[in-house]
Design a protein that fits this description.
The complex is a heterodimer of chains A (285) and B (253). By secondary structure, chain A is an alpha/beta fold. Chain A contains nine helices and eleven strands. Chain B is 83% helix and 0% strand. In chain B, helix 3 runs antiparallel to helix 4 and helix 8 packs antiparallel against helix 10. Chain B is mainly alpha-helical. Classes of the chains: A alpha/beta (285), B mainly alpha (253).
């Protein structure tokens, strides 16, 4: 049984006038324990909405989300989320931002232990000498490092990443991706990670599975594509590996082919294709 | 050069205003000229801390009484207003319940609240505090409420993702996020409290700048009225600047 299993999820948002806009319709998704799955799609395709539903930040209109056999109601105790815009509290230091998460995750922990743990988490991402700085005094990359440290400091079993490197420049992005790979492999218990991204390269570098998201509305998911590359991986290695090239080709093919089909038949044809997809997605697993 | 002009221009404004005052005093015989005002007020300004009688006191002492009264009234106002603002901010239900009432009570003049205070408390001092508190708390309530409502979704997400308790969310997220708005409210509230002081001291005859003003009007010493008016304006200006500084420091975070 998959660790995360979402079945027939639908979500629509009210519009100022007229019918509500259906963002997700009949979306099914699953991830095995300890795997890294990326949902890749264009901006505004409903990826963040889906992640919000999986993480328990948003409730779906219909369908079910089950994690570890329990239906998701609100954010789970063992889940951590990293947002694109860092979501740090600007009035606290980096250390205090992390400590707040640690204290909330481990209520019985003494203040000193929590502080030591937070400090260690920040050292892990190379921010050992910036712990007393406020987010406003840190660069974008450093802020996202704090957010990543905050997520890992609570030893999550589930990690949701909402375009975590989307706001960063290419070089910073690459070092942070490496940090994330390193942190993910160094935890004691397996972390099941779901990441949203619009970069196919990033998805190939980090993931075990890539799920293309096809733009709607309503958006649907394509068949998962396995990335069977040994770890540790590096960006340089990805440029030459046959497996990476194949994965890249099939992700791009799915995204463009189905995107085109959806456009050509905005009525029945497009809808039909979308209905059948989630089922196919589950069967290929 | 530019800085010099920026310093000079306000001076020119003051000089023009004094000239206008002087012109008006020529036309209206009862209005003391600037020079006569200074002559008759000198004692109060040069010996600001001397107490000669219940209302016949140095201007600093009078200002001190008024400031104390305003301070207490203002404190009472924000002690009531801040929690109400938070309550209205977090609960749309409560805010909808009391919004119309608030809109009706907000424009009521201090002169109208004061008699009600006298009926409620029987004594003039608590009545004055009541009037100051009731008139000055609205900007605090409204700004605190707006501050809570303006908290970005990001911060609420932090609270939900970290599963912070209600108390922790309030202390670590809602209060710090609202603080700049709260202080804007406090600054406006203090301004109103200072406006109310004159009215309440006039009606209750309490010692202070406002009481002094009214008494000197009744004693036909018009120069002292002008002294009181200028004092009230200057103190109000300083109070606003001080609160503005506190506010700016909070916004810098």
């Amino acid at each position: 049984m998959p660790f995360i299993e979402a079945t027939a999820v639908a979500k629509s948002f009210p519009t100022r006038r007229g019918a509500p806009r259906m963002v997700l319709k009949d979306v099914s998704f699953s991830a095995e324990r300890g795997t890294f799955t990326s949902i890749v799609g264009a901006m505004g395709s409903g990826k963040s909405t889906l992640l919000g539903i999986l993480a328990g930040l948003t409730t779906a209109d219909s369908g079910s989300v089950v994690v570890d056999g329990e239906p998701v109601r609100g954010v789970r105790q063992d889940a951590a989320v990293v947002f694109q815009n860092y979501s740090l509290l600007p009035w606290f230091s980096a250390l205090e931002n992390v400590r707040l998460a640690v204290a909330a995750a481990f209520p019985g922990m003494s203040r000193n232990v929590a502080l030591a743990r937070s400090r260690a988490a920040l050292e892990q991402v190379g921010l050992g000498n910036a712990i007393s700085r406020r987010p406003g005094q840190l660069s974008g990359g450093m802020r996202q490092r704090v957010a990543i440290a905050r997520a890992f400091a609570t030893e999550p079993a589930l990690l949701f990443l909402d375009e975590p490197f989307g706001a960063l420049d290419a070089l910073t992005r690459e070092t942070l991706q490496q940090d994330l790979l390193r942190l993910g492999s160094s935890t004691e218990r397996p972390v099941t990670t779901v990441m949203i991204t619009n970069s196919v390269e990033e998805a190939i570098l980090l993931s075990d599975w890539i799920v293309p998201m096809l733009p709607g509305p309503p958006a649907t998911l394509g068949a998962p594509i396995a990335v069977q590359l040994p770890r540790p991986r590096s960006t340089a290695q990805l440029a030459h590996e046959e497996v990476a090239t194949q994965a890249r080709a099939s992700v791009v093919a799915t995204l463009t082919a189905l995107g085109r089909r959806g456009r050509r038949f905005p009525g029945h044809g497009g809808e039909d294709a979308m209905h059948s997809l989630p089922v196919a997605a589950r069967e290929t697993r | 050069m530019k800085r010099f002009v920026h310093l000079l221009l306000p001076m020119v404004g003051v000089v023009l205003a004094v000239l206008g005052w002087w012109g008006a005093s020529v036309l209206v015989p009862d209005l003391p000229s600037p020079l006569r005002t200074w002559d008759e007020s000198r004692l109060y300004i040069l010996e600001p801390l001397v107490k000669r009688g219940e209302t016949d006191q140095g201007i600093a002492l009078l200002a001190y009484y008024s400031l104390m009264r305003v301070g207490r009234g203002f404190l009472l106002g924000i002690l009531i207003g801040t929690p109400l603002g938070f309550l209205f901010g977090v609960s749309p239900l409560v805010s909808r319940m009391f919004d119309p009432l608030m809109q009706v009570m907000r424009p009521i003049s201090p002169l109208a609240w004061l008699p009600l205070g006298l009926i409620l408390f029987q004594k003039s001092e608590p009545a004055a505090l009541f009037a100051i508190a009731v008139c000055s708390m609205w900007p605090t309530i409204i700004n605190t409420m707006m501050g809570v409502r303006a908290i970005p979704q990001d911060y609420w997400n932090v609270a939900r993702v970290l599963r912070l308790s209600r108390t922790t969310t309030f202390l670590k997220i809602i209060v710090p996020a609202t603080l700049p708005y709260m202080f804007t409210g406090y600054r406006l509230s203090l301004g109103i409290a200072w406006l109310v002081i004159v009215a309440s001291e006039m009606l209750t005859g309490a010692p202070g700048v406002g009481g002094f003003l009214w008494q000197e009007y009744n004693s036909l010493i018009y120069a002292h009225i002008l002294l009181a008016i200028i004092t009230i304006g200057l103190i109000g200006f300083v109070l606003d600047r001080l609160m503005g500084l506190a506010e700016a420091r909070l916004r810098a975070i």
